[in-house]
Amino acid sequence: MKKTLPPFIFGLLLGLVAASLLFTFLDDDGAGTADVSRRLKVAHTLPASHPVHAGMEYMGKRLEEISGGKLSLVIFPSGQLGSETQTIEQLQSGTLDIAKSSAAPIGNFLSLFKVFSLPYLFRDEAHYWNVLDGEIGQGLLEEMSVNDSGHSSGMRGLTYYDSGSRNFYGKRPVLSPDDLKGVKIRVQNDPVAMDMVSALGGAPTPVAWGELYTALQQGVVDGAENNPPSFVTSRHFEVCKDFSFDHHSRVPDILLISLRTWNDLSGQERNWLLQAARESSVFQRQAWSAEVRKSLDLMRTEGVRIHEVDLTPFIDATRSVRDKYAAGLLKELMERIESVN
């Protein structure tokens, strides 16, 4: 006589099979992942003590709060995933979700972003943030998704982070352009920055940031240009005792997202991400200001002489650089920026 399963056991097995099929179906088409936390991988090249990292941590906290835990960030600081150029390439290929980059190397991918390297385009800090927070700056974040040839760039912008103004420092003071004549100044691998130093009479010398301390120490270069927090965290104050506030350029850090990741997010998830990014920008600016004050105090303690210089001769000497790049769409962008109050 053929044995049959008791009704209770048969029903239980049938329910397990049905549940298994349902979960398989939902997993295959993504319909059941709405309540599952998604962790976005974020990279930057700065130490975990930097205001950029603090801004990202704040963004991660707010993103989890806003999304109810559905989105979160995993942050990799200190160049763990590569240089800024390498992380940009990872964004474009879709192997990295979010990264921070200075606007300077972005100019090598998208020519409009060379505008941030131009000397003395921004009248002061207030003018700078009025541009970035306004129609021009926010429009550039979206326009980043298309490259110069009209094709997808593989990334778009989320928000701007403060990196202050760039200023000259070295083993002797720079009080006027005359003090730069024949002086070897380290610059980023950025044609605009090189043109600027040349216009001021200096000898622009590209050196990798990680190699700069030794280059300054051994006299490969005589000086460099950057902001106070970078000057302090790199310990360049040990070999350079003169820092001159000439504010020759204001180059923002930009938080970028891979278009592959962006396109994979729902409209609601994008809104959560943008809100958290914008709130983190405000937080990061405050952290940056505090870090600048702290850096200046340490610089004075370490015997660094801090100079405030007359900007007029620097502005006049670099006019040729601004004129050189004032063509086509970049010229239109420069004129729009100059018209902002």
Give the helices and strands, then pairings.
Elements: H1 7-29, E1 38-43, H2 51-67, E2 71-76, H3 84-93, E3 98-102, H4 103-106, H5 125-133, H6 135-143, E4 155-161, E5 166-170, E6 184-187, H7 191-199, E7 203-206, H8 212-218, E8 223-226, H9 228-233, E9 242-249, E10 253-258, H10 259-264, H11 267-301, E11 305-308, H12 312-317, H13 319-325, H14 328-339
Description of the molecule:
- The chain is of the alpha/beta class and 341 residues long.
- Helices cover 47% and strands 17% of the residues.
- The protein contains 14 helices and 11 strands.
- Strands 2-1-3-10-4 form a 5-stranded mixed sheet, with helices on both faces. Strands 8-5-9-11 form a 4-stranded mixed sheet. Strands 6-7 form a two-stranded parallel ribbon.
- Helix 7 (191-199) links the parallel strand 6 (184-187) and strand 7 (203-206).
- Helix 2 runs antiparallel to helix 11 (267-301).
